[in-house]
Amino acid sequence: KIEFGTDYSPDVSYHFNSKVSEFHYGVRHPMKPFRLMLTDHLVSGYGLHNYMDLYETRAASREELLEFHSKDYIDFLSKVTPDTVSKLPRGSLEKFNIGDDCPIFQGFYDYSVLYAGASLDASRKLLNGQSEIAINWSGGLHHAKKSSPSGFCYVNDIVLSIINLLRFHPRVLYIDIDIHHGDGVQEAFYTTDRVFTVSFHKYNGEFFPGTGNFDELGCSEGKHFALNVPLEDGIDDDSYINLFKGVMDPLITSYKPTVIIQQCGADSLGHDRLGCFNLNIKAHGECVKFIKSFGIPMLVVGGGGYTPRNVSRLWTYETGILSGMILPESLPEDSPFREWFGPDYSLYPTLGDLYENKNSKKFLENVRIRCLERIRYLQG
Ligand code: VJV
Ligand code: CA
Ligand code: ZN
What we know:
Structural class: alpha/beta
Radius of gyration: 20 Å
Distance between the termini: 50 Å
Number of strands: 10
CATH class: Alpha Beta
Strand content: 5-15%
Order of helices and strands: EEHEHHHHHEHEHEEHEHEHEH
Number of domains: 1
Shape: globular
Bound molecules: ligand VJV, calcium ion, zinc ion
Strand order of the largest sheet: 3-2-4-9-8-5-6-7
CATH architecture: 3-Layer(aba) Sandwich
Number of helices: 12
CATH superfamily: Histone deacetylase domain
Oligomer: single chain
């Protein structure tokens, strides 16, 4: 049933370790690593595993984490457990921002080094030319800082991979379509022109993490090498795609990145438990397809996404796009967890009908024009 597309790519690697999907942030916590298990079952149910190079990933080493994170912080992360966390001296939880968003759950360090190891493995495949596209759906944890966790993210696999790619790549482009601002990645490369960061996100000054206004554009050497695209609730497929292509096309043409990292947070889909956009799976996927069409080596990571059945549909659909395989709309019949996908059993059910679109045509046109003015600075 699965067919070769005209853009079938033989050099796609898929990096996963099913152990990451077995961790729990806590019963009512919105981040569910189990969504990665659902995704992997759909990907293999469609037979996509036969058209990619599969790698079971290993844990990132302490030395690799120290390329970005501070020694203090990694010492703390590697030692603290749910049993010891309650016995820590007052102030140390505050110091490291431990709380409801980033709980110390059983095995959280093993979980963190596994998703980071997968992104590092993926970046290595791109560096040595064995892959044109490398995929790690367990990565994309864009909020983690040098010395603190933030927004469900403990270590920043994206920053670590970019640091690795910078060993041989002169210009790295980071694209973030999670509904939240990619603050950790932006901050890490705010003063360099060798990494261009762009994030599309909901912004009103309050929505987590509170940053990502248009006026954050980088500083010193990095001035004009950060771009923020703040959006209102309820953006729909056509508005998002038009804006995304209208900005990314001139940006890629001017910046000429030698490698691209795309963060594909699924919380920008309609019906997400934390999000408030109206995107359908095909529209989100269209953004990935568009970036792929430039033919630049790509590292593709996951990120947010809090309605597990739709997260797994999206990342399966995008795995199809990236490998250049065409997937039938009806989900594989003999797949475990099939009951999660009823009553439609479709790869792309309608999701974009929940919120009123608060982004007027005028507002979006203004955002687009202001982005283009910024991009013009790149040509000097
Ligand atoms: O808005 C916040 C911060 C608070 C303080 C902590 N409380 C729990 C929530 C409000 C101000 N945090 C956000 C973090 C979003 C992280 C997104 C991560 C990504 O998608 O960009 C990348 C992976 C937030 N929004 C919703 C929640 N936290 C939330 C956290 C919970 C929860 C319900 C909602 C934590 C535990 C439990 N319920 C049981
Ligand atoms: Ca974003
Ligand atoms: Zn998010």
